[in-house]
Amino acid sequence: MRIPLDRQSETPLYQQIESYLRQAILSGNLSANTRLPACRQLAHDLGVNRSTVENAYSALEADGLVFSRMGSGTYVLQQEILPGTPSQSIQHHLPLWQQSLHTHNSISTSEMVEEMLKTGGHPHPINFASGVSDVREFPAEEFRKTLQTVMRRDQIDALEYGEPNGYAPLREGIAHILASQGLQTHPESILITAGSQQAIFLTSQVLLKPNDTILVENPTYSAAIDLFRTLGYQIVGVSMDNQGMQVDRLEKLLQQHHPKLIYTIPNFHNPTGTCLSSIRRRQLIMLAERYNVPILEDDFVGDLRYEGHAQPSLKALDPGGQVIYVSTFSKMLVPGLRVGFIVADGPVYESLLSYKRLSDLATSTLIQRALDAFVTVGRYQTYLHRSCQVFRKRRDAMIKAIERHLPSKVSFDIPSGGLFVWLQLPNGISANELLPIACQEGVAFIPGNFFFIDNLQGEGWMRLNFVSQSVEDIEEGIKRLGAAIRKLRTLK
Amino acid sequence: MRIPLDRQSETPLYQQIESYLRQAILSGNLSANTRLPACRQLAHDLGVNRSTVENAYSALEADGLVFSRMGSGTYVLQQEILPGTPSQSIQHHLPLWQQSLHTHNSISTSEMVEEMLKTGGHPHPINFASGVSDVREFPAEEFRKTLQTVMRRDQIDALEYGEPNGYAPLREGIAHILASQGLQTHPESILITAGSQQAIFLTSQVLLKPNDTILVENPTYSAAIDLFRTLGYQIVGVSMDNQGMQVDRLEKLLQQHHPKLIYTIPNFHNPTGTCLSSIRRRQLIMLAERYNVPILEDDFVGDLRYEGHAQPSLKALDPGGQVIYVSTFSKMLVPGLRVGFIVADGPVYESLLSYKRLSDLATSTLIQRALDAFVTVGRYQTYLHRSCQVFRKRRDAMIKAIERHLPSKVSFDIPSGGLFVWLQLPNGISANELLPIACQEGVAFIPGNFFFIDNLQGEGWMRLNFVSQSVEDIEEGIKRLGAAIRKLRTLK
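The joint structure predicted for all components is written out below.
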């Protein structure tokens, strides 16, 4: 135990020891039944006389903070824990440098909405604000068994530092899955990351400096806006229609802003659910080539298609290393594992790998080994197929519920895949005004403005996740949403 | 399957499909026995006639690439895989932006040395270059059981996104362990990170901009130098003696360079193994306060003490939120789990959390839950006690072996804890010249210059890890080192 002692202080050493331990016990940091070091040991550790420690322990015992058991040692007694955290008590004399820190949002939009939903106090709240798929669909028990098999098979190897670009068999497995989905690549072009968030972070950090410009669809993934803003980039939006990014407006923006990167979600876009049309895909790549701008393709749920024809990924259409492709196991399989990946060719791969090493050395090898054993091509296809069946039903349920329970003046396109319905409210209804009322009714969504660069836009829109709730809850949740809209109207 | 088709192309669609599949099969991306989608399904996915797909499949079958099994489908046949990766073939027409990327070292010093050792070709190489403790000491089987228990107990919860600052019970557990080791803190002041590398990355990113100055001990942890250099900081070194950083030289440097951060390893310093003396600890904090500079304390193996008195951590001596404390489970317990933590008070905690979210949202909750269940205060103390016993013996073995097998003119201080002996070679012997010869003899170390800001310094030094090899291998490895030194001398 390394108790800080001040030998220059006028306070006797035994009192310093006593006071450290007292504070640790009363704050709960040393919890009931923790054994304190033997007096001899602590005296040696601290370089003090044994009697000094004995005096400290006696004083604590006299106050009922510890008790000694003959021949066994000194133990902490159960205490009433004092309120007040060290960080609270510290606020009074903060160093100057702490006062000038810029603090950014450290809470995500969906967490904020979840908080509001809780505050709403409904006994059975229904949340359409999630950004991920339905974790309850994940075969956790099968995964547990896989983890066991892997730990038994690899033993201590499963716990060593792994290769910094990722566990080789997992990279091979991903290459096979991607090929089976229509994207040909090579394990050496794949870089494993801590979820797609890290993949986007690394790519933008490698390609942009503060004040550089990034082009994004407007609206787009809200966490990407937060990220790009915090990293100090200029964000320029390209507007969208029901065919995805309006690529015909792109050339002018490229000439005007000289962006260093185009960030796009061409498949089942977040939040709008649209797919970039085939012609626009080729135009986008052609323009990026002509203006020498890399494309970051975020394919977060590209395979979750419920109908219609498959569109090739931009990466599959790109012969020249223009496109950096990012995807993840978090959205479709399971969020908590935090495994995503980048597919990139050419020198940028080395740059990404080098930045990955700087930022966290490597992603947990145990989780990568488990995923490798778990996600075979066959199992992935089966799981994908089953997910698509379940999610298609939920989408249909949501559309029917919207038609049944919401005013006829709402409008939306039916998404052919992905996770979201992007819904426009009747004229004059603000999603932000609606949200607290909806939360009281027991239903939540994400207001549209969170997805726009200028958050005064999108006021009349909302994003509804249709995959994360059961068919019954979807029906009930949309019903509540209808009630909330009626309530808001009577208030106005 | 999203095969990219070009409907404007003169190549017939069936040939485009055939050629995509052919390439996927010959490159090994579609491996033997993979089932291709049914013709009807693929035709639907791609929006082509069923006969188009059938023609493509027939052509592939005629060339012996696939075979069809009645009523079951079309399968890939075993092929000889063509060499040549897509990334190689792409190099010819790289986009311009790719050519201007700065590529940094994407290989670490210890990996480089490990490569050299392999190249040396010795049948039983002994590696003293590692930066971590001995993974073989870790009770992997116990950990496997804990993981099982946790998966059974938490089920799908173990796989959800967790709290971004870390799994609350783990943060509580760490607070208890820290208190039992002499550092009082609060779970709300603890931020879980992906190893201490991420902790250092986050702290420096939050506190410094490119061209800002960071003060470090010289020599210091080589990965930290790489990190700070790549992030564009000015690195200023403070020289060291056998009491650690020469704090009496600090004030002048503070006045001269106005650093934004002081990075220090006060306990069992990497690479030198020294501990900052008690008086200097207080002086360091006082100076940091006076000049309004935060301290980043890297306590990577602070508890691995084999003798002598315990020094309180800087964080424990700091009442005012000046010190940001970083430690990890990677060095002592197990590297592959990638779990470290920051202890910070005041607004900087929120800034760190916010940057953590941006860079990877959160660290795997499953691993955190397993660690929480595994690392109780009692088990930590037991494991620490056992590790110290084993490692002390290894240290003693290395010192004896050095005295026995190396020239009497080598010099070093006996480290009272940690992982490393920092050894000065006899005059005129360069560790860099020695390394390839040593690797041929079957032993490796890290040459000293890797730890200096100016890597022309430290030429006569080397870092030896004494905890990662058995007593027998230490004896044998140092013997080989002696042989290598003699060999180098005869060559000169």
